[in-house]
């Protein structure tokens, strides 16, 4: 671990190197953050494929894909869902995104996007809807945690000067 990486169990902050990962995508292929070295990446962490909020968020990121791609950003969604469920989600919702499966939630935890949260007024363990903008140098440029799905992508675009 480099001096720029958060210690184990600590949530990465703006300026830290993003946690490295390699996960299986919806096509059964391995995808690593290192595959995008030199390019900006938006990683959005979401609770469950096919649920209303997650579908809204994924569809909005997919729709913004051409604008983001032109501006030099690759969008990656991470959830605990299986690759097969992600493939169905992508097909059913006509998504043009990289969707990655993190069934043991290790990558979600490394980003601080899994843990205690409120769900319908109760404290539960789960995915904390979060988005991270990672620069071409691998450092976190924006960390948006515990966000609401509706309107989130528009806020991300505005924060990048694209909306």
UniProtKB/TrEMBL annotation:
First-tier enzyme category under EC: oxidoreductase
Q: Does the keyword Oxidoreductase apply?
A: yes
Drop me one GO molecular function for this one: thioredoxin peroxidase activity
Q: Which InterPro entries match?
A: AhpC/TSA, Peroxiredoxin_AhpC-typ, Peroxiredoxin_BCP/PrxQ, Thioredoxin-like_sf, Thioredoxin_domain
Q: Name one GO cellular component term.
A: cytoplasm
Q: Is this entry keyworded Acetylation? A: no
* UniProt-listed Enzyme Commission number(s): 1.11.1.24
User: GO biological process: what's one of them?
Assistant: cell redox homeostasis
SUPFAM superfamilies given in the database record = Thioredoxin-like
Q: Which UniProt keywords apply?
A: Antioxidant, Disulfide bond, Oxidoreductase, Peroxidase, Redox-active center
Record field: transmembrane = none
Q: Which family does it belong to?
A: Belongs to the peroxiredoxin family. BCP/PrxQ subfamily.
Quaternary context: Monomer.
Q: In UniProt terms, what function does this protein have?
A: Thiol-specific peroxidase that catalyzes the reduction of hydrogen peroxide and organic hydroperoxides to water and alcohols, respectively. Plays a role in cell protection against oxidative stress by detoxifying peroxides and as sensor of hydrogen peroxide-mediated signaling events.
Write down what this protein is called.
thioredoxin-dependent peroxiredoxin
Gene source species: Nakamurella sp. A5-74
Q: What is the lineage of its organism?
A: Bacteria, Bacillati, Actinomycetota, Actinomycetes, Nakamurellales
